[in-house]
UniProtKB/TrEMBL annotation:
Keyword Ribonucleoprotein tagged: no
Signal peptide segment: 1-26
UniProt keyword Transmembrane present: yes
Record's protein name: POTRA domain-containing protein
Lineage: Bacteria, Pseudomonadati, Bacteroidota, Cytophagia, Cytophagales
């Protein structure tokens, strides 16, 4: 009976993929608590050894890569505790462990051993795909009349720690509204110093119903009479990464995209691809700089994030387009106290050319740019500026040991955090084409505000319930399944 309970629980694993989140759990804060106790300690210490326990799958060098503390170096005690807390966060943000605890063990006068204790999570996740093809639940519920034909379903196998080196493998097949196939493999570290990495991804999808334009700031979808495939898309991307320091990352991406459109689409929108062909082929070259110093990359309450990227669409003379996109995203997470935190995020996006193919349309309403209160709308243009703000109050922070019901250690602890948030977002979309059908919201200052409840639970799954109003006098209740920052 015990074995049956153990293995029958595996059938629940795909449910974790329902909300398509990355998997992590609340990190251990034991060291932070220890630093406030009255136990006597030396003013200065030297680390003799660093011991790691609990890493049955993960290789030791992957963990040591995140530890700034060194053996044979003298540290002030307060400096040591501060560095331990920072190293715990870096190890936890690998998303390989349920918990991380670093403990200094005093062995002699001004001599310590450092014990790094981790609890590994479940790395191989059979992931059920069951999601909406629309931009968000509000779009599906209101604008698409709760049409269940607009559901994607399928399966995906995800391995988050191939070979114990933090390599990622993802293979998936999707059916329903959008039929798709994807393969992704990433190796974060190729060299001994663990600075250089590579990844590759191939994606193929087809659609019988596609958005062909927008009118009155809503997407307009089209299906022809024969219900033929209207769009086929295949793409392949290779990325080189360089991590020279703990918090700074550099990425160079090279890729190719091929899009084929059914001629019927051009009856609905003659400028769908902006060329005289029903095919759009081009190479892509991009560079991204990321500075990431968040305490939790899934639901941060402290730290900062900066992303700057430049992407060139069309590299060679034979490519079907020639444009450049620049994106900047800067988030600041301020921990006011243990209960309160303030988050502010600024996003800018701009294309160089005046017009883009509809397949590359950008604007408010398309992930990741949104203003709360405008979830039902799309505001399209070539330049986007969005500033999001939330003041959050944590009123519940508990955890439950469910080990006697769930025999797998990776799922034996159920955390639960609840935040009451007060939000204010504002922004602007510049449409240089001044399309009259969307003039109600383009080239105008927009803002939205309201209150919401964020629930963060097992593996940092996020449930957001928000009631928002906007400066057009509209108001609605919205449900989301990911953090807004």
């Amino acid at each position: 009976m015990k074995d049956f309970r153990k293995y029958s629980f595996l059938f629940l694993l795909p449910l974790l993929g329902f909300f398509e989140v990355n998997y992590a759990v609340a990190q251990t804060e034991a060291v932070e608590k220890d630093s406030t106790t009255t136990v006597s300690h030396p003013e200065k210490v030297v680390i003799n050894n660093i011991f790691i326990v609990g890493n049955e799958k993960t290789r030791k060098n992957i963990i040591l890569r995140e530890i700034d503390l060194k053996t044979g170096v003298s540290y002030d005690w307060d400096e040591l505790i501060s560095m331990i807390q920072a190293d715990q966060k870096k190890i936890y943000n690998l998303q390989l462990f349920n918990s991380v605890e670093i403990t200094p063990l005093i062995t002699d006068n001004e001599q310590i051993e450092l014990l790094v204790s981790v609890t590994e999570r479940w790395y191989i996740i059979p992931n059920i795909i069951f999601n909406l093809a629309d931009r968000n639940i509000a779009e599906w519920w209101t604008n698409q009349n709760r049409d269940f034909s607009r559901v994607n379903y399928g399966a995906r196998l995800v391995h988050n720690n191939v070979g114990g080196r933090n390599e990622k493998l993802k293979v998936g097949a999707q059916f329903g509204f959008v039929k798709a196939f994807e393969v992704l493999y990433s190796i974060p570290y190729l060299d001994k110093n663990q600075n250089h990495g590579i990844s590759g991804q191939f994606t193929y999808f087809t659609q019988k119903t596609i958005p062909v334009k927008s009118a009155f700031n809503k997407q307009v979808f089209y299906t022809n009479e024969k219900e033929e495939v209207l769009r086929k898309n295949s793409s392949a991307y290779f990325r080189y990464s360089y991590r020279g320091s703990y918090y700074n990352f550099h990425f160079v991406t090279f890729g190719y995209n091929n899009t084929t459109i059914n001629p019927d689409v051009f009856v609905q929108n003659p400028d769908y691809l902006l060329n005289e062909s029903n095919k759009l082929n081009y190479f892509v070259l991009g560079y991204t700089f990321r500075h990431d110093k968040r305490n939790n990359i899934q639901y941060a309450t402290e730290g900062e994030l900066l992303n700057i990227s430049v992407t060139k669409y069309g590299i060679f003379a034979s490519d079907d387009m020639d444009d450049t996109e620049i994106s900047i995203n800067a988030n600041k997470y301020i921990k006011v106290s243990d209960k309160f935190n303030f988050v502010s995020g600024l996003s800018l996006n701009s294309f160089i050319q005046k017009r883009q193919p509809f397949t590359l349309v950008r604007g408010i309403g398309y992930n990741p740019n949104f203003i709360r209160g405008y979830e039902l709308n799309v505001v399209e243009g070539q330049q986007i500026l969005v500033h999001k703000n939330s003041f959050r109050f944590k009123f519940i922070d508990v955890g439950y040991d469910i080990g006697k019901y769930v025999p797998l250690e990776e799922f034996s602890y159920l955390p639960l955090k609840m935040y009451l948030g007060f939000n204010f977002d504002h922004g602007f979309v510049n449409d240089r084409n001044n399309l009259p059908d969307n003039a109600r919201l383009t080239n105008k200052y927009l803002f939205g505000y309201g209150a919401g409840l964020d629930i963060v639970t097992l593996y940092d799954m996020v449930f957001r319930f928000e009631y928002s109003l906007n400066n057009q006098g509209e108001q609605a209740f919205f449900v989301n399944f990911r953090a807004p920052f």
